[in-house]
Amino acid sequence: METTATPEIKKEVITLDKVNVRNLPELQGWKQKQKQVVKNHPFVAIKDNKTYEEAKKHRTALVSARTDIQKQDKLIASKLKELRSESKKVADELIQITQPHEDKQQDEVKRYEDKKEAERKERERIERERKEAIQNKINSVYAYWKTKISQLEFENISEFEKSLENGISKQDSEEMEEFEMDWAEKKNLLKNQLEERIKYITEQEEARKERERLAEERRKFEEEKQKEEEARKAREKKLKERNAKLKPYIRFIRDYDQVLYLSDEDFDKELESLDHQALEQNKFEAKRKAKEAEEKKQREAEAEKLRKEKEHIEAEKQAQAQKTFEIRCNRLGEVGFVENHTGAFVNDSHKVQLESLVDDVYAMDMEEFEDFIQDAKTELVNAKAEAERKAQEEAELKEKREAEEKAKKEAEAKRQKELQPDKSKAESFINALGFSEEIPTIKDKAIEDLLRNFANEAKDLQLSYIDALNQIK
């Protein structure tokens, strides 16, 4: 905005009845000045950043021209209340010279700023969709192979490893841009999952073979026992039948056991001569009882042996279950989760606690535990990502606040600098009013007192305003 030198104003005593707002020295030349501002700052159509900056400068000049009048009007109104109405009319007339041009320029500036804002939002949308597409592709490939790994069987390991390698190679050939690290992490997860799955199904296969071996041994053992039992029953049946035949002759049998176990032919002959063997009856009976007692003892011993074998097998199962649980705790520890005093698995660094407790992990089968540990890894990865995201948001918010505070300080400094010429003009105007301390002689006492009070108040108001300007400086 152009500035003109303030002409030296000769101080003189001004009587109230001669004060005319349009004749005030500080209002002289303002109309021509306003027209000159409009001429020097014509309307600018915004086409690019250069014209945008030029349009803002023109708008600022027009705003300054208007605010100069408004400031002058407020100054006069605060000093001379009786002249307020006339000065407002003159100010409005002067403001109307630049106001339409200011409004038109303001609308053009706002239109261009709205256009730039819409372009910025569109660029953000395109960038967001690009990132989402890459992330969705990575997650889809990861989920597909994760499911395949969980379904892998022992007999398909070699073929599956080749398929997974080909799938990863195919994905490597696609452009990941800034998500290369995400894809690399997902690849490592898939490879680790495959290794753990192969280890698991290999252990399962070995366990299956061991179970089959033990089952075969148990089957053979039971077959031998069955044969022995059948032979024993056959012997008992045969003995029972012979006992029934010998019962009528018991008192005549001298060696009952010998007679009982004779061949069929000899037994038949013995039956014919039992009348002569009554003296051996007691001896034979004693031997028979001893034999039965020994067989019973043997059967009880065999039953006890079988019971101990079953207890041993059960103990081995429990020991294996405990060993499996300890291995699972170690694997959870490798992932980042440890057991706390409440029986839960936690990661204190990222404040993550898994839902399944110690008893749950102990009771899981192998497949359930594999799903559980994979979910634990995923939950920890998500917790880490969330912590990083929050840290990034806090850093961006802090940076934004610092930038806004800096811009605010720069704007205030600029405003204070721009106000300096206006403060000087206002001070010169107030000093130029030159209210006299002398009171004209008027016979009417009431009018004289009124004029004296007005003059005192006007002088006090002038001095107060000058003090205010000095404080602003």
Which short descriptors sum up this protein?
77% helix, three-stranded antiparallel beta sheet, mainly alpha
Give the DSSP E fraction (strand runs of 2 or more residues): under 5%
Helix percentage? over 70%
Query: What is the distance, rounded to the nearest whole angstrom, between the alpha carbons of the first and last residues?
Result: 21 Å
- Strand tally is 3
Strand order within the widest sheet?
Answer: 1-2-3
Radius of gyration: 56 Å
Averaged pLDDT: 79
Biggest beta sheet attributes? 3 strands, antiparallel
The secondary-structure class comes to mainly alpha
Query: What are the low-pLDDT stretches, counting only 5+ consecutive residues below 50?
Result: 1-11
Q: Note the overall shape.
A: rod-shaped
Q: How many DSSP H or I helices?
A: 11
List the helices and strands in order.
Answer: HHHHHHHHEEEHHH
